[in-house]
Write a structure and sequence with these properties.
Helix 1 crosses helix 2 and helix 2 packs across helix 8. Helix content is about 25%, strand content about 20%. The chain is built from eight helices and 14 strands. The relative contact order is 0.16. It is an alpha/beta fold and about 250 residues long.
């Protein structure tokens, strides 16, 4: 907690991630930080936001943060529950979802994601992660993708240990070449700032800083030589109402 601001970096990240859903109609939600942000958005700035989870729930309105995609709260509060094949074949692959919201264990400069395994070094077994889940299909088919994760050289790496989910591949044109219909990642919100793909190169660049964070801090926490946008702006601190809503969700 910052004594001067009375909010944590995680809260700053979660509030800014929620703000990124302003104006969205439908959101395919990943568990963890994406779910926190999406549910905060629905309870504050975008009450009409329809949340979909890969377990088949449509229009879930949980009163607390779900523990997993199989949390009964999601089905109990949903407008409808469909089969997993229908969720993926009709809703997701049919191009009917505006935004996909994902997390990651590792991300590279082109917003490709690893959630499968990590190299733990010589003579040590690979570290196994939760795996792909629906992330590859979400990143391929949603209108656009938002990502949220904490910023460190452990997470923002020069080279992924495993490519689980394609963001922008190796650069411009890769998604089109592979026939992926969605726009792919458009923003990565972290506890230090916001990164967005450069329109010309598709490489993530720093576009926004959170209060009290410097460009050098973000560069030091990034595993590649991070570039900045022409004008790096500052994000707005959380409002009292946003913080109250976020803390109520977590307390529940």
């Amino acid at each position: 907690m910052n004594a001067e601001t009375d909010f944590t970096r995680d809260e700053l990240m979660e509030v800014n991630a929620a703000r990124a859903l302003a104006g969205a109609t439908t959101c395919f939600v990943g568990i963890g930080l994406p779910s926190t942000a999406a549910n905060l958005a629905r309870t504050t700035l975008n009450p009409g936001l329809v949340l979909l989870y890969e377990s088949g729930t449509i229009g879930s309105k949980p009163t607390r943060l779900p523990l997993s995609i199989g949390d009964g709260e999601l089905a109990e509060t949903a407008d409808a529950v469909v089969s997993v094949p229908e969720m993926f074949n009709y809703w997701l692959q049919g191009g009917r979802i505006d935004v996909g919201f994902l997390g990651a264990a590792q991300i590279d400069r082109f917003a490709n994601i690893n959630t499968t395994l990590v190299d733990r070094g010589p003579d040590r077994p690979q570290g196994r992660l939760p795996g792909a889940g629906g992330a590859p299909e979400i990143a391929a088919n949603c209108g656009k993708v938002l990502m949220v994760l904490r910023h460190s050289t452990r997470n923002f790496v020069e080279k992924l240990d495993f490519v689980t989910t394609l963001g922008h591949g190796a650069g411009p044109g890769d998604r089109a070449r592979l026939g992926l219909p969605g726009a792919g990642p458009v923003a990565v919100i972290t506890d230090l700032g916001v990164l967005r793909p450069d329109p010309a190169t598709a490489e993530l660049v720093l576009t926004e800083l959170h209060p009290g964070v410097t460009v050098q801090q973000v560069r030091d926490a990034t595993g590649w030589e991070l570039r900045t946008a022409g004008a790096v702006t500052a994000t707005e601190p959380p409002t009292a109402a946003e913080l109250a809503a976020l803390r109520a969700l977590k307390a529940a």
